[in-house]
Write a structure and sequence with these properties.
The chain has 5 helices and 5 strands, in the order βαβαβαβααβ. It has 146 residues and is of the alpha/beta class. The protein has a 5-stranded parallel β-sheet, with helices on both faces. Strand 2, helix 2 and strand 3 form a beta-alpha-beta unit. It starts with a strand and ends with a strand.
């Protein structure tokens, strides 16, 4: 039914469950695009931090993202589905906007994304990427709970 399935991943068990669901939906026929959005690392205080440390942290985040994407892509390949990967380093843009822009630009039929199902104060403090994606997406979104 779906031909182009976008799956945002972040290395969590929740995003792994979303990936497994996307693989089932693809049935070996649909194209799966895995994306990892690297968030900008901001220093709240300059005490003990300098720009070199921030750069090192950004590079470590990039390497972890690349490894996560490679492992997830191998999982998709083993299922027989076609896979593409994209590492999005969208500084100055929210993760929600990066995901939704990628889905629109790639002409995704479906976004499959994991959600932790936070409520109350934890949702207020941490926010919800999945909720933001659902609110702004122009295509169907399948939420997979932890």
């Amino acid at each position: 039914m779906y031909q182009r399935i976008l799956v945002p991943i972040n290395g969590s068990t929740t995003s792994e469950r979303a990936l497994q669901e996307a693989i089932k939906l693809a049935e070996g026929k649909a194209q799966i695009r895995l994306i990892y959005v690297i968030e900008e690392i901001l220093a709240i205080s300059n005490e003990g931090l300098d720009f070199a440390n921030i750069a090192v942290l950004q590079e470590a985040a990039r390497k972890a993202a690349e490894k996560t994407l490679a492992m997830a892509a191998e999982t998709v390949r083993k299922s027989g589905a076609k896979v593409e990967i994209a590492l999005l380093d969208e500084l100055g843009q929210s993760v929600v906007d990066a995901i939704n822009n990628e889905a629109q630009n790639w002409l995704a039929d479906l976004i499959v994304i994991g959600t932790h199902g936070r409520t109350g104060l934890t949702r207020l403090l941490l926010g919800s990427v999945a909720e933001g994606v659902v609110r702004e997406a122009t295509m169907p979104v399948l939420l997979i709970r932890a």
